[in-house]
């Protein structure tokens, strides 16, 4: 069969590659972003109860109303921002599906999409699949701050969308209030849609406040807010999230959503609707992960790695330039094969695979796992 690939440059994802390598060599896997500890047993019990109670058929296409109402209440409680649970909130099969459906619903041939690199790896290929053109803006280590004047220069009549991610994976940085105000001013009066990936909204440290897109009225009027229950409640394998947007945008989103997955896991929706009634289930997450970050930092003392600032997410970036001049992809593989610890090379998220001698490590692991991992890293 002869065919022309729509994604000729895309290969197996770095997450799949490094996890497979870790499994092959029985390495400690700090590469892929998933916890190795259990989800709350109370939530698991709620899912089991929903299954036994018969909620095992299709859920409504936009999600069950009780869960959408719980999300609306959560956003009002956290950000004093209102979304209509009937017309402005949709439950999705994880955040990645939400992102895919948003881009598919709005991006046409030659539409330009601005993304900030290093960027989560689904943004670019999804844009390309829909005929869009990625306009990357490369951020520099170690602080990964945005030059908003450069962003302004990048915008033109073909700019259809801008994708932001805060807290940001993989850089572990956050957007400040001033960043969001700059973004609001730049996009005001335009037809640019902002896709705000906020899956780590509850994993933010040092008493900083999450600057959600919905806190800024003009931004909210042109934006999708994307979130993930999997990241928040330690069950990434459940693949359940949601997105929020003004009615006029959500109507277009649902046209794509219904033909992508149609509906999402019914018993889990039932369980989450009840679980969200207790705000502490998500309010305590930041401190939980801050303790993990602090432990990982303390355990790394005395190593030759340089720790870059970790403001949010459950990832930490380590600069290894004091150890070797190897390419980050080569060093990541060697760490896995020779030393038994897997990480993610940051260059795969950068424009033109820019190598800044930085690796990403996931600290959403048990304390014992982190202790074993740092014992290895300190010997390198």
From TrEMBL:
* Aminotransferase class I/classII large domain location: 27-375
Keywords, A to Z, come to: Aminotransferase, Pyridoxal phosphate, Transferase
InterPro entries membership: Aminotransferase_I/II_large, Kynurenine-oxoglutarate_AT, PyrdxlP-dep_Trfase, PyrdxlP-dep_Trfase_major, PyrdxlP-dep_Trfase_small
Q: Which SUPFAM superfamilies match?
A: PLP-dependent transferases
What Pfam families does UniProt report for this protein, alphabetically?
Answer: Aminotran_1_2
State one molecular function term (GO).
Answer: transaminase activity
Highest taxon listed in the record's lineage? Bacteria
| Obligatory cofactor(s) | pyridoxal 5'-phosphate
Q: Which CDD domains match?
A: AAT_like (cd00609)
> Which NCBIfam families does this chain map to?
PRK09082.1 (NF006569)
Q: What is this protein called?
A: Methionine aminotransferase
Which organism is the protein's source? Gilvirhabdus luticola
């Amino acid at each position: 069969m002869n065919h022309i690939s729509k994604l000729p440059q895309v290969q197996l994802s770095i997450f799949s590659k490094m996890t497979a390598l870790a499994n092959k060599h029985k390495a400690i896997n700090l590469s892929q972003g998933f916890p190795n500890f259990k989800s709350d047993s109370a939530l698991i019990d709620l899912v089991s109860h929903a299954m036994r109670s018969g909620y095992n058929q299709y859920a409504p296409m936009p999600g069950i109303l009780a869960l959408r109402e719980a999300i609306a209440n959560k956003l009002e409680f956290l950000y004093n921002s209102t979304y209509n649970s009937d017309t402005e909130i949709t439950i999705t099969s994880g955040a990645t599906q939400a992102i895919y459906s948003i881009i598919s619903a709005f991006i046409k041939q030659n539409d330009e999409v601005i993304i900030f690199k290093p960027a989560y790896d689904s943004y670019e290929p999804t844009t390309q699949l829909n005929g869009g053109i990625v306009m990357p803006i490369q951020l520099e280590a170690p602080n990964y701050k945005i030059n908003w004047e450069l962003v302004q220069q990048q915008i033109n009549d073909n700019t259809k969308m801008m994708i932001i991610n805060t807290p940001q994976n993989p850089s572990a940085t956050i957007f400040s209030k001033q960043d969001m105000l700059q973004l609001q001013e730049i996009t005001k009066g335009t037809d640019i849609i902002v896709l705000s990936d906020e899956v780590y909204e509850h994993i933010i440290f040092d008493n900083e406040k999450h600057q959600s897109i919905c806190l800024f009225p003009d931004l909210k009027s042109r934006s999708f807010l994307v979130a993930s229950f999997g990241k928040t409640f330690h069950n990434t394998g459940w693949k359940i999230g949601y997105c929020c947007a003004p009615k006029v945008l959500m109507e277009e989103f649902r046209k794509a959503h219904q033909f992508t997955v149609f509906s999402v896991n019914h018993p889990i929706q039932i369980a989450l609707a009840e679980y969200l009634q207790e705000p502490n289930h998500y309010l305590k997450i930041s401190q939980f992960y801050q303790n993990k970050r602090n432990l990982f930092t303390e355990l790394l003392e005395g190593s030759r790695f340089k720790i870059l600032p970790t403001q949010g997410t459950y990832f930490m970036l380590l600069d290894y330039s004091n150890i070797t001049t190897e390419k980050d992809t080569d060093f990541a593989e060697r760490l896995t094969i020779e030393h038994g610890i897997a990480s993610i090379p940051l260059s795969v998220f950068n424009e033109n695979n820019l190598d800044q001698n930085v690796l990403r490590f996931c600290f959403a692991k048990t304390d014992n796992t982190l202790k074993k991992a740092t014992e290895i890293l300190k010997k390198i």
